[in-house]
Amino acid sequence: MSPSSEAVPATQQFDQRYILKLSCPDQMGIVAAVASFLTQQDCNILESAQFDDEGTGRFFMRTVFGSGQTTPEADNLRAAFDPVAKRFNMDWTLRDRFERPKVLILVSKPGHCLNDLLYRTGTGALGMEIVGIVSNHPDQKPLADFYGLPFHHLPITPETKREQEKQILSVIEKTEAKLVVLARYMQILTPEMCVDLAGRCINIHHSFLPGFKGATGGPRADRSRSGKLGSSARRARTCRGPGHPTRRPHSRFWSKLAAQRVAPSSALEMPRSAS
């Protein structure tokens, strides 16, 4: 909290709020550096969560903070943080908390995941803007029409797979989608497509099972700290393994989050800001 605002609760002051997300090689001083930077910029930390992935040696952090009277505008704030990010070799983003990212959904015949996403987006439970639906089957067009969303029917065969993926990339470019969600899209993406969508494509599914294949899924989930609730959103990647979970609810700080979200049936555990 800034010295000039001690008498007023912080939650009543910070109308402008941002989300800082970062990952980098694990090392000492990351949290201290971020906290010191935000203090210097007259920012107040409202939420913060972090964990160290011991399997990969990477550190992950997500911080929500409010701006004070002397906090720079977002672009200047990003420029000021850049030296800190370079010092720790961070991959990072800083955005307005209430920004609604554009999302393109890919689906095949089953529509339960798609329906859940559309409903929750419509009620405001998911803070995102759905810019269209792509499917290799026409089955979900009535649902898309009901919600007034563009529906792109792009059939696929083994021979036309890469050409169809290029059509999907064209839709992504035209809609300016920042995230692609595979909502029961029953196709294996080619390695080229995974590279094209690196860092901006996740696969979701409804499941409370461990997020690992085979009879040893439970122990492997424990070792990876993914938790036995199941990691329900995974980043797409080039190998055909289970993929990296985007959430680790079994680790210390995610356990509280998972407990709060275990009641809803939705498997897409995204905050209201769709971060």
Textual characterization of the structure:
With 275 residues, the protein is α/β, with parallel strands linked by helices. The protein has helices at 30-40, 74-88, 112-123, 141-146, 161-175, 191-196, 217-224, 252-261; strands at residues 17-25, 43-53, 58-67, 91-96, 102-107, 129-135, 151-153, 179-183, 201-204, 233-235, 244-245. Strands 7-6-5-8-9-10-11 form a seven-stranded mixed beta sheet, sandwiched between helices. Strands 2-3-1-4 form a four-stranded antiparallel beta sheet. Strand 6 (129-135), helix 4 (141-146) and strand 7 form a beta-alpha-beta unit. It is globular and about 55 Å long. Mean pLDDT is 80; it is low at 1-5, 227-232 and 239-275.
Task: Compute the number of helices.
Answer: 8
Q: Approximately how much beta-strand content do the residues carry? A: 15-25%
Regarding quaternary structure, how should these chains be classified?
A: single chain
Order of helices and strands: EHEEHEEHEHEHEHEHEEH
Helix share, percent:
25-40%
Poorly predicted runs are 1-5, 227-232, 239-275
Number of strands: 11
Overall spatial form:
globular
Strand order of the largest sheet: 7-6-5-8-9-10-11
Averaging pLDDT over every residue, what do you get? 80
Q: Structural class given helices, strands, pairing?
A: alpha/beta
Output the radius of gyration. 20 Å
Distance between the termini: 24 Å
